[in-house]
Amino acid sequence: MQGRGAVDEHLPGAADEGADLAALRAALAARAAADGLLDVAYRTLDSPVGPLLLAATERGVVRVAFGREDHDAVLAALAARLSPRVLHAPARLEAAARELGEYFEGRREGFDLPLDLSLAAGFRRDVLGALRALPYGTTATYTRVAGLAGSPRAVRAVGTACARNPLPLLVPCHRVVRSDGGTGEYVGGAAAKRLLLDLESGPGSTAAGGRGMVGP
Predict the structure, then answer these.
(1) Global pTM value
(2) What is the rounded CA–CA span in Å between residue 177 and residue 186?
(3) Is 162 among the catalytic positions?
């Protein structure tokens, strides 16, 4: 006979319920994908710059968001701008999570991921193209990026495009700095930008001995 304090080991515990819920979500996501109903998949990822939200359409990664951006608000915005069919489906973002992990470990200097740039248009998209051309371990001024984007006088617009970059890290707006040597603003916060710049200027980076400047 069991005492009052005994626990029936056959009763499901919190761990079992959590596993069942995860399996149910995975099955739901797989079914939605098979039926063509998974328009936007998302997952979260722990990182040295805090929790990241990763989201992807069938075309590629469409959003990377820092915790300070409020992940619930980001998901709501994705539902409003892209599709209400947004599901937690980590499988679609497995490669993105792996490559970001390798980047933070200092084992990757570039990303081999398809990107969906549908959240950026016009000059903002031109800026994203210029940012993607900035090599690992280097920095460029806002003025330089404006020139690379085809509008040398649009320095303020470059700052806005960086602040609204839907794909930070993958599209490296953290490599854009002020002409006076200051790091400037960053969607992930000043500490995150400093961490990323320090990571890329480490002994294993292509910028031997420190960061290089792209252009004037």
Answers:
(1) 0.81
(2) 10
(3) no
* Amino acid found at 190: A
Q: What burial class does residue 185 get, using C-beta atoms within 10 Å of its C-beta: 0-12 exposed, 13-18 middle, 19+ buried?
A: middle
Are the beta carbons of 145 and 130 closer than 8 angstroms? Answer: yes
The closest of 26, 134, 113, 122 to 64, measured between CA atoms, is 113
Is the pLDDT confidence value at 215 over 90? Answer: no
Best CA proximity match to 101, nearest among 91, 115, 92, 111: 111
53 and 74 in contact (C-beta within 8 Å)? yes
How large is the greatest C-alpha to C-alpha distance in the chain, in angstroms? 83
CA separation for the pair 115, 54 (Å, rounded): 12
From the list 60, 189, 36, the residue with the least C-alpha distance to 117 is: 60
Higher confidence at residue 155 or residue 12? 155
Report the DSSP pairing between strands 40-45 and 52-56: antiparallel
Number of Cβ within 10 Å of residue 52's Cβ equals 22
d(CA 174, CA 188): 9
Contacts of 52 (CB under 8 A, 6+ apart): 44, 45, 46, 64, 65, 66, 67, 100, 169
Cα separation, 154 vs 119, whole angstroms: 20
Catalytic-labelled residue, pool 173, 177, 192, 199: 173
Please measure the distance between the N-terminal and C-terminal CA atoms of the chain and give it in whole angstroms: 82
